[in-house]
Amino acid sequence: MLLPIDLLAEERLRQSKVRVYAKSVINSCVLNQISRCDLRGYESNDFILAKETTLELVELTAEGSLISIIEQPVFGTIKDMKVLHCNFPDDNDPDAMDIASHPPIRGQDVLVFLSDSGKLSFVGYTEDEKISADDNKGKGKALESSGDTSEQRNGRFYPLKEIKLSEPGFDHRQLGRLICVDPYSRVIAVAAWQDSFSLSFIKDSSRCNFDPIRETKEHQQEGIIWHMTFLYPDDPDRVALAMVVFNDVKKQSRIVVYQFWAGDGPQGDIIAYGTLALAEDSPLPLHLIALPNFPECFLLITEKDVCFLNAQQVTVGHVEFYRESLPNTEALTTAVAISSNNERKGSTYLYAGLEDGSLYRIDVESSTSIKFNLLSENELNPIAPAMATFTRATDGKDVIIISGEMSDGAVVTVTPGATSIVVTSEISNWAPILDFQLVDFQRENNDVVYSCSNRGNKGSICELRRVIGVHIVTQTEPEFDGTNALWSLKYTADDIDDTFLAVSFASSTRMMYLGNGELDDISEISGFNLDVSSLCVSSISAVPGCLVQIHRNGMIITQPILRETNASTNRVDGLRWSPPNDEVIEAATVSGSYILVSLSTRNGSLINTFVVEFDHKTGCIALNKKDECLLDTQLCFITCVDSSVVTCEPIFIVGTYKPSIKIYCLRPRLELVYEVILNEFSSTGINIPESACIIANEEKAYLLIGLREGTIVHYQFGWSEEKCKPELSHVGTRRIGSLAVKLVSRPSKTASIVALSDRPWQIDILPHLNIGYTCIALENYEYVQEATPFKYPDITEGYMFVANNCLYFLQLVRRKKTKVRKIKLGDTPRRILYDSVSNMFVVACTLESAPFPTSIIRLVDPFSGSINYEHVLSDSDRPQNREAVYSLVGWNLTTERRHLRLICVGSGIYAGNENPYGGRVMIFTIIKLETASNPNQRYEMKKLMEIEVPGAVYVICPMSDRYLLIAAGNTLNLLKLDLEKQSLINVQSMELRWPIVSINVCNTRICIGTQRGSLTFYELKQDKEKFLFLKSERWARLTTNSIMLNENLAIGTDKNGNIFGSLYDQDDPNIEPCLRTIFSFHLAEIIPRLRTGYIGHNMNYVPIASSSDTDEKEEQDTITGLQSSVENISPETESSDQPGWDAFDDLSTKTQPTTVVGCSLLGSVYLFTRINIEAFNLLSVLQSVLEEWHNTVPLLGNDYRRIRTSISDTSTNESSYIIDGEMVSQFLHLPRQEQHLILASHANLVKAGQTYLNYERDNSDLMKSFYWSNSPPPAPPQSPIDLTSENGDMAYGMRFQPWSFEQLKEEKADLNEIIVAIEKLLCELNVDIS
């Protein structure tokens, strides 16, 4: 029986092998609301930051910084938020705990939300009970943004109660736009945009069974409800609600006050207590604020003045109320926050922020006296509506948290009675993002986002990274130039804290002593040779206070005199040793009382082993030589790993120029037990080791080797008690820069270390992955010359860093944050292009100048931020016109004689405020200046040619070396380049129905995106220079941008906040010329630009066979790496038309597919990664389970499938082949017991997990070595199982029956194994931009 054509087409679509994982790596920075709250139930200054689609809980530190506690997606759009103060009783009812419907509410507050779900949502917060409330709450840890790591509290927001108000969506006549809460938490009011509002009366409720609503009544109020607030009452049972309502027919505003009764009063008697019509020419009402110390009074702030009114005046229609003109009427009052310090009766004060950055304190002294105090005029950026205040009990100062309007916000403090502010920290804002580039300056095979951010004089290029921050405890003056080594030393072996700090310079050494909290220079009494550079400085464990200095010409053992009474001796007795035969010391290390010194000889490196012995009777120190060992090659470093780390005896790691790593044991002679050959571990050929160390936790250990080319090689490290030698396996590499890697380890067992290259990094052992790399960010990503761990009381993870020639004592902050480095431009950047030839950013900016804005193109140095060149777009023939740049692309041309790099600029020309009547295509080249008067001006731009076209040039796309495709309005033009004449010739034009917003090319295939026509594929017939229509999308979309991954696959975004993938299948049996939608996914944020790059790293491992001893006498093992298997793929070497996204080819395990990156207008950064079918099958079932699980359902009551479904599509399987990383990643934050319960309750998830494990066992050498070490080889791998239902749906909404214990036992389902596999897979996919 033949299937219909459409079923064949659906079957063909299911055969495609593209599966996508979508995840936000940087959340939006736009703050819509800020509220003070008590959610955690213990003493902390907590605030809630409500963004468009996420909630963030932050804590205000004593230093005035914000620490992010948690940020959680709500799976919807937040419309409004308020805090409900509940005042729960302190005692918990044990009986209530037994019947609890949710986790107990910790604090005294509950969050109340309105969202696009159409529900009134009550939200609480809970934390892992294992983490104590007085745990280190961030003292001294300054964070400016959000993030989460394993060190953060395992907390989450959870729904308490949901009440349906209206249908989901954004209907302006349905309830769900504004919310306000009575000051005494008796009533909640919810308003629509116009014509109606509702009142919900609150009843007492418990912490464990929160059900606060007694009854809800809806009321009609004709007009547009602009503002709404409850007034402070003068009667404990009376409630007054004030509104500002606009009549869109009469074009007039009025104030309405409603009166009703709470408690046991007649709640149904809700009356319009009074109405006061404002004059038709009155200024626009901006804010309505209830005054706490003035019962039933409020302030109305307009564009021009501040008005004081009370309910009685509204009732009688008294229009002659008191008003005071604003001191600054040129800028709007954008934010108002009333102070929480209102102890003085009969007066109050509030803070007002203006759009120009001014901050005022408004003192309301009486009903006829309002005073304005200017606190800041130029210190702050433009202020956005979100603002909150908090009065500190310790000093009485007001802390104001201010959000920035398309610029950075701030946390400021105001002293009572002061007329100025103190900015304690900044709140980074990199929105809106109009364009961005992905660049890998450090050649780490890991791109970084550089965005066009902010506007006006705050416009900048922002470098966005997820980093580990630092808290700088103290720093010195820049007097550490030339530092080449640091050592932290203890006075005795039993000491916990460090006492000494040794610093080696190019030709000198300094010794410092920490006493009474001060670091004193004791170099003159140290007994060291201060005129040489040191190779090693260390303590001798056998003798308290005994130190050893080793330099190229000798060794000194001394005991510094620290007491002031003995300082006059000025001479310290000690031992000195010099190498024989004028040999020099090339490297050295100290372990306990053993000293290993490597001498450079003609025959190779000679390692001498000494032991320091101390005679307690005589007090004499002796240095005895125990052994010597000749190497067959020159040594480059030697380091010791203490026996407490991973071995039962100390081991010494030696790096050689062979290149290799040799591992020795002291038994009691030096014995070589292992050797690692490093010939193949290099991407540049410079594979000489620079450093090595071992990191370990309770489960596993790793040997890390830092190479001089900037790469780290890591092995999983084990120790065979039977053979008394190491066992290495699972090798991987990671490039972290271009400079030599210095690994800074601690002497004791640690699971994390610091690595230095171009930038400092922290390397951790991750729970489910192997090695995690996170950049450490100082203020501006400074190059760190040297570092050493330094233990100090009450400081965890303290380090001494030398950067910018200064010595920093700092503490690593164990929370990741979004670090923003800004290159300030002073104008609004609209387009950005990275030119790899000149290593410059080409930036098109809009210059705000009279009489109209002007476009300017700049060459910006990405490192220094200096502007090398400016080109102002001007039209000499039409000087009154203005020109805006819409497109900026690079064009690489290769001719017989040379290679050219051209810069193509497309613009639109405007006359007045009308639509663009024309545009230009301009071709530039960047020329390096041989001589320049300005040292910052090394390059300039030269215009080669231009062509004017009818219509604005929105898009330019190069096509081979001959053609240029441009979009002039709704016309597609094919331009041909004539280099000899330096001109562009229009050879073909095609008019489309809608304006063109994107053009992508792959070989001769063209993808066109239009404003309302979605995506269309064309073919260019080069012999005839004609366009041939192929296929277009069936659905109309408001397309914003698209990107072509190969000839058959394009990914686009639209103005509804969707991302979609369209497939051109030449073998599609359907006769309709329609593209197939592989996926369509609603993000709820508009993405104006898509790029491809390499984000994160594929850790590829090489299986290591059991190697035989190469030398029976030395029992030596040798490992040779396979370069082809471990090297990460470089974007420069991979073919641009093979990014790993072929729709009908399996995802290769040997290559890393490009990642599609999208930046939203609100500042979010999304990654769209291709995953294999086996991983998709597992995660799709997990997603269908979590979207209905009570602790992972959408927070604000949305239907998950509805919010992730594209509005414009009606296809039944439109989101089938994409995984929502936000949803499935919630699995990582659930307790292990709940993870077990989820699997035990869903048979399909267990089966999917077993299928995935079988795939991993069959196809991964790494997994084979783990799972099949004691078993026969597995059967040949079977074809991947696609877990789709018959109609193509990916198990969405399916109900699963829980398995019984007997079924689990029968199926031999190892739930722990499946849970670990899921967590490992999610950790691999959830990469960071670092």
Automatic annotation (TrEMBL):
Keywords: Nucleus. It is found in: Nucleus. Residues 131-153 are annotated as: Disordered. Residues 131-142 have a biased composition (Basic and acidic residues). Residues 32-419 form the RSE1/DDB1/CPSF1 first beta-propeller domain. Residues 855-1229 form the RSE1/DDB1/CPSF1 C-terminal domain. InterPro entries: Beta-prop_RSE1/DDB1/CPSF1_1st (IPR018846), Beta-prop_RSE1/DDB1/CPSF1_2nd (IPR058543), Quinoprotein_ADH-like_sf (IPR011047), RSE1/DDB1/CFT1 (IPR050358), RSE1/DDB1/CPSF1_C (IPR004871), WD40/YVTN_repeat-like_dom_sf (IPR015943), WD40_repeat_dom_sf (IPR036322). This is DNA damage-binding protein 1. Pfam families: Beta-prop_RSE1_1st (PF10433), Beta-prop_RSE1_2nd (PF23726), CPSF_A (PF03178). It comes from the Eukaryota. GO terms for cellular component: nucleus. Residues 476-811 form the RSE1/DDB1/CPSF1 second beta-propeller domain. Its main location: nucleus. Belongs to the DDB1 family. One of its GO terms (molecular function) is nucleic acid binding.
